[in-house]
Design goal:
152 residues, 8 strands, alpha+beta
């Protein structure tokens, strides 16, 4: 069972490990050079200043994290060894429970992507890395569950 809490300084190294294992397991379109450049930004900039929520086990070890700005999910990563245990869903459901609508950008090259008929897309993300990015808008009902997905 996992619980959520705000990230602490002690989580920095673990969250970077989570990011690395998650990206290596799911972002096969990144070149080694891109991975190196992005990982430096993540480790030395993003993780140091982002307000993150972490999913922790009974030993308070982080297995996944999410960062957001307003109603937009900026980052959601789950350790590769912890995938399939509902951690991403726990993080996202908690986020959706507090708002009526949320957005997230995901890489369209992911094998887990939903139907592209529902998504808007662009060829680059806001850091101008060459990749296809899907823009998802999710409207929620009173229970916090995503009940309507559309393109933004």
């Amino acid at each position: 069972m996992f619980t959520l809490r705000a990230a602490k300084d002690k989580d920095l190294a673990r969250n970077f490990k989570i990011w690395c294992t998650s990206v290596l397991a799911t972002h096969h379109f990144l070149s080694t050079e891109d991975f190196g450049n992005i990982s430096e930004l993540v480790e030395k900039s993003y993780l140091l200043c982002a307000d993150l929520i972490v999913a922790v086990d009974a030993d308070d070890l982080s297995h996944g994290f999410m960062g957001a700005t307003g109603d937009h999910v900026d980052a959601l990563f789950v350790h590769a060894a912890s995938r399939g245990q509902g951690i991403g869903r726990l993080l996202l459901d908690s986020f959706l429970a507090t708002r009526n609508e949320a957005t997230v950008d995901v890489n369209r090259t992911s094998p887990e992507e939903a139907s592209t008929k529902l998504w808007g897309s662009s060829r680059k993300d806001d850091r101008t890395l060459i990749q296809r990015v899907a823009h998802i808008r999710c409207s929620t009902c009173a229970g916090g569950e995503c009940n309507q997905i559309g393109m933004t």
